[in-house]
């Protein structure tokens, strides 16, 4: 299609080649740790010289909507890597063997795409990795998960043998405690990076990123940040968007504090509806 200049992306519409670390608000520690780890991908010769074994996996741990996918995309752009994304939820209804085959495909496609695009590295991002990387034997009748996880382990073990394309697996989860021990042992997911809900300062930063370019009137984003304790980056993006929609509905050219206040309520209500168990 029209995206020849970008790496092949599965299940994600934004182009990872465009995502910069600067467009991710807060997450200072996560960014720092991730950048440090990515230098292993950028300078493999140094890593080899020091006799350090190549980094294979980074695990991003934190609640939904905090920027884990954005971080993985920014990591791909920063290292000029091919980016491939998958979600653990894709594997839920898969028959035995199909999940394992899909894992094989993702890794081989990452590699072949990198070779085709003359890139030296590939980043594979698997969201909700606890679904396929859950403790083995814990699903009782779901033997297919074990095969899928085993295949993932096989792929991770094989990563180091390819010197034309370096592959890095970035996994995301909000339930690190559910992961099989084999995944988090040294040589697999070597690094765990905590991606937490934004604090007041980070919320201000995120609001500036999402509302800063919108026409605001008497809106103090720090005040909005104070009123959005517990909101994720995704929630804050929604608030900025909803506020703009509300202003437009009133045929106003400026977004006011009142619009933000209503938008906050709307996002809170939406959350409650989503959490209703009998949906
Ligand atoms: P999930 O676990 O649900 O997949 P996630 O942690 O991967 O969530 P993202 O997909 O990265 O979250 O974020 C969703 C959207 O929320 C982003 O596209 C962005 O608009 C907004 N967002 C989330 N976190 C941040 C942040 N730290 N800075 C700026 N925007 C953010």
Q: Can you count the beta strands?
A: 7
- The helix/strand order is HHEHEHEHEHEHEHHEH
Basic shape: elongated
Q: Provide the structure class.
A: alpha/beta
In words, what does this structure look like?
The chain is α/β, with parallel strands linked by helices and 279 residues long. The chain is built from ten helices and seven strands. Strands 2-3-4-1-5 form a five-stranded parallel β-sheet, with helices on both faces. It has a two-stranded parallel ribbon with strand order 6-7. Strand 2, helix 4 (98-116) and strand 3 form a beta-alpha-beta unit. Bound molecules: adenosine-5'-triphosphate. Adenosine-5'-triphosphate is lined by residues 24-27, 64-70, 127, 172, 206, 209, 233-234, 237. This is Vesicle-fusing ATPase. One of its GO terms (cellular component) is plasma membrane. It comes from Dethiobacter alkaliphilus AHT 1. In the C-terminal section; belongs to the peptidase M41 family.
């Amino acid at each position: 299609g029209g995206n020849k200049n970008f790496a092949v992306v599965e299940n994600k519409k934004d182009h990872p080649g465009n995502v910069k670390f600067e467009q991710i608000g807060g997450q200072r520690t996560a960014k720092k740790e991730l950048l440090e780890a990515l230098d292993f991908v950028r300078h493999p010769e140094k890593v080899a010289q020091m006799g350090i074994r190549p980094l294979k996996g980074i695990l991003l741990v934190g609640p939904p909507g905090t920027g884990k996918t954005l971080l993985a995309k920014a990591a791909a752009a920063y290292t000029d890597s091919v980016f491939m994304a998958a979600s653990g939820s894709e594997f839920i209804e898969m028959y035995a063997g199909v999940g394992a085959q899909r894992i094989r495909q993702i890794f081989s496609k990452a590699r072949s795409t990198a070779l085709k695009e003359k890139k030296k590295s590939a980043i594979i991002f698997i969201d909700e990795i606890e679904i396929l990387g859950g403790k083995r034997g814990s699903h009782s009748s779901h033997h297919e998960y074990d095969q899928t996880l085993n295949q993932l382990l096989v792929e991770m073990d094989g990563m180091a043998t390819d010197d034309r394309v370096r592959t890095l697996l970035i996994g995301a989860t909000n339930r690190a405690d559910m992961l099989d021990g084999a995944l988090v042992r040294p040589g697999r997911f070597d690094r765990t990076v905590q991606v937490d809900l934004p604090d007041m300062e980070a919320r201000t930063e995120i609001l500036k990123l999402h509302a800063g370019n919108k026409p605001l009137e008497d809106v103090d984003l720090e005040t909005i940040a104070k009123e959005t304790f517990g909101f994720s980056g995704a929630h804050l993006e929604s608030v900025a968007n909803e506020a703009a929609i509300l202003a437009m509905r009133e045929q106003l050219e400026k977004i006011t504090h009142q619009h933000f206040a209503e938008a906050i309520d709307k996002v809170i209500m939406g959350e409650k509806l989503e959490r209703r168990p009998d949906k």
